[in-house]
Amino acid sequence: MAKITASVFTSHVPAIGAAMDLGKTQEDYWKPLFAGYDFSKQWMKDNKPDVIFLVFNDHATAFSLDMIPTFAIGTAAEYTPADEGFGPRPVPKVQGHPDLASHIAHSVIQQDFDLTIVNKMDVDHGLTVPLSLMCGEKDPAKDSWPCPVIPFAVNVVQYPVPSGQRCFNLGKAIRKAVESYDEDLNVHIWGTGGMSHQLQGARAGLINREWDNAWLDQMIADPAACAATPHIDYVREAGSEGIELVMWLIARGAMSDVPYDATDLEAARANSVRVKHRFYHVPASNTAVGHLILENN
Ligand code: DHB
Ligand code: FE
């Protein structure tokens, strides 16, 4: 059967992608940020997954205000890096895993989560920047990403957005779906976006180190309590774009120390997660960058 063995959490600032694409990673401003991902790039090589289930948000790139799915799963064979106004990033196309994606869609919808099925989608910085941070520079002419990716887009741009609680429960359903897939596949689940940032309005530039780190502590140690954090707390404490953090709860909910339901509490208690890496850095453009790698025991 397929199994989720690890989760990766990272912010997705577009300027990080630009710094990599323009060869600026060793400049004074960027160097400390990229140093925080040295461990992660090696870890990716040492723990190469068969498939990455990548939870991200589209920034009105693939989905305009014409149509806004709350949760959308990519079932395509391939995804092209999007043009967000400065031309597409010079990174490889993303290969999908239509068979596993379709299986997860079937299972998760049968578990009463309404997903939108996406057979064609360009992927913006929300997806490509986390891949670049974890996999390093890739030349689209000769390189590819290490494995297929299932993009899972969450609406955190246009209100109403899903609650952290719903995202956490969805993560449990995704794990159940993965574990009911026949093939032996090593799957990683990524939660991306965040941490504190606000890009517009009177509080533009807001960063909240203390809140971010307390949220990380709780997300790791007591994810069920963290999932109960109301929207207004994210917006007040972490800024209007801090709400992207609810996506991390999807990945956290898919880890094996989280019970699917009351009947497997014991099994879940027997499991635990290891923090393999934790990193936090300010500034990166207007955003506080947070990063975690958790492994299932
Ligand atoms: C920035 C951060 C984001 O999450 C985003 O989607 C766009 C810009 C920034 O900090 O510049
Ligand atoms: Fe964003």
Task: Characterize the structure shown.
The structure is a single chain. Strand 10 and strand 11 form a beta hairpin. The mean pLDDT is 97. This protein starts with a strand and ends with a strand. The protein is globular and about 50 Å long. The strands form two sheets. It has an eight-stranded mixed sheet, with helices on both faces. Strands 5-4-7 form a three-stranded mixed sheet. The protein is built from eleven helices and eleven strands. The protein has 297 residues and is of the alpha/beta class.
Largest sheet: 8 strands, mixed
Q: What sort of overall outline do the alpha carbons produce when their principal axes are compared?
A: globular
Strand runs, count = 11
Strand order of the largest sheet: 6-3-8-2-9-1-11-10
Q: Helix and strand string, N-terminal first?
A: EHHHEEEEHEEHEHEHHHHHEE
The fraction of residues in strands falls at 15-25%
Q: How many helices in DSSP terms?
A: 11
Protein name: Class III extradiol dioxygenase subunit beta
Keywords: Dioxygenase, Oxidoreductase
Domain Extradiol ring-cleavage dioxygenase class III enzyme subunit B: 8-289
Organism: Rhodoferax potami
